[in-house]
Amino acid sequence: MARVFENVLVFDGTGSSPFPGEVRIEGNRIAAVAKGSHKISQEGAEVIDGQGATLMPGLCEPHAHITYPDMLKLRELGDTPPEEHVFVTMHNARKMLDAGFTSLYSAASSKPRTEVVVRNEINAGRIPGPRFRAASPEIVSTGGLGDERQLHMYHQGIELIADGADEVRRTVRMCIREGVDQIKINISGDNFVRLGQDGACTYTEEEVKAAADEANERGVWLSCHSRADKSVRMALKFGFRVLYHCEHSTDATLDLIEAAKDRIFLAPAIGANYRLAHHAQEWGITHDVADRMGVFKTIEQTAQTYNKLRKRGVRVLPGGDYGFIWNPIGTNARDFEYFVNLFGYTPAETLSAATMLGGQIMGMPDLGLIKEGFLADLLLVDGDPTADIKILQDQDNLLMIMKDGAYYKAPRPRRKAGKGSARTREMADA
Ligand SMILES: [Zn+2]
C-alpha cells in the first residue's frame, strides 16, 4: 500500500523549521520526502490532501507507567489483582496511542509480567498500542522509593524489594527470565514518599553493580531513579542507559553526564511534580501541603539543572510519571509546555526530543524522523505545534495517527481551516 500526503507542513523531527511539502509512504516505511508540491510520484498511491496541516513523526513517552490506574496512592497498584491489571495496562496502551504517542519506553511495570504480556499482544497485532519497551517493576531496597510496607502490615505497590547484592542479582535475573526489555532500579530516594530522601542513596555501589553486571551480561538495558548526586554518579559508573530526574547533580557531575552524552538519555519527568504542585488541590494537595512535600523546591532545582543540561547538548526527553489522578495517562503532551516554560527549550527543540530522541531511546535507528527509509509512525496535526506547542494537548487536533504504516486513526477534516478537508482523492471522487 502506497500513500502520499500532499499539501502538508512537514516537521521532520530534526528540530528544523517545518516546510511545506509532501511525503510518500510505501508499506511501513517513508519512501520519499520533498519540499513544495508534485515533486514526488503519486503513482499507485492513495493521495491525502493535508490542507496545510502539520505532518510530524509520532511521539515517544520515555518514562511510561501504563500499569498506573490514574491513582492517588502507589498502594492502589498492589490492590489491583493481576487479571484486572492487565486490562488497566491494555486500556492505557490504547489511550497513549489516542494521544499521539506511537512509542513507549517504560520506566517500570507494577508487576513483573504485566507489561511483558501487553507488549507481546501489541507486537502480535491482537490489541492496539504503541511500540513498547517493557520494564521490570521498580527494584528497591527496604525503605526505598516504592517500599509501601508497614512494620505491622504488608502492602504492595510498584516494587520488588531486594536488599544486598545477592538479592538484587536474583531479582534482576528473575525479571530478565520473565521477558523484560529493561531493568529499573531506584538508586536514590524521593521526597514523594519520604521527605528529605531525594538527596540520599537507597542502594550501595555493591548492590547497583550487581544489578548492572547481570543486565549488561544479558544485554538488557538499565534505567534508574536517580535524584541524588551520588546516585547519578553510580549510574554513570555502572553503564546505565537511561537516568531519570538527576536534579541534584553538581556541576562536576554534569561534566560526567556530558562526557557520556552519546550513550545515555535523561528525562526529568517534570509533569508529575508540576501537576502535583499546581493542579492537585482537589485531592488535598494544597499549596501548603505541596510546599511541605518539597515539590516547589524540586521543580526549581529541576529547572536549574535542565537549563544547564540543554546548553550542554545532553539527550533529554520530555514526559514521565503520568498515571496519577492529577496527571492521568494520555495527558503526557503537557510535558512539552513545561520544557518550553521551565527549561528554556524552543517548541521545535522539545518536539525533536519527543520524536527524534524518542526513536533513539527506543533503540531503533530508523524511527523518529520523517526521512526516506524511516518507519512510518506519523501524526497529522491541525495547526503548527512549533508555533503553539499546546495544540498537541487536545486530541481533536490529531487528524491522523499512523503506526508502522497503518492508520490507527484515518485522516479527518481540519476543524478550523474552513475550506475543504484532509481527505483522500478516492473519497473525493467517490
Ligand atoms: Zn517513574
From TrEMBL:
Name the segments for region: Disordered: 411-430
The record's section on InterPro entries has:
Amidohydro-rel, Metal-dep_hydrolase_composite, Metal_Hydrolase, Metallo-dep_Hydrolase, OTAase-like
What's in the keyword line of the UniProt record?
Hydrolase
Would the keyword Flavoprotein be found if you checked this record's keyword annotation?
no
Molecular-function GO term, any one: hydrolase activity, acting on carbon-nitrogen (but not peptide) bonds
Read off the Pfam families from this record: Amidohydro_1
Name listed for the protein in its UniProt record: Amidohydrolase family protein
Q: Which organism is it from?
A: Vineibacter terrae
Upper taxonomic lineage: Bacteria, Pseudomonadati, Pseudomonadota, Alphaproteobacteria, Hyphomicrobiales
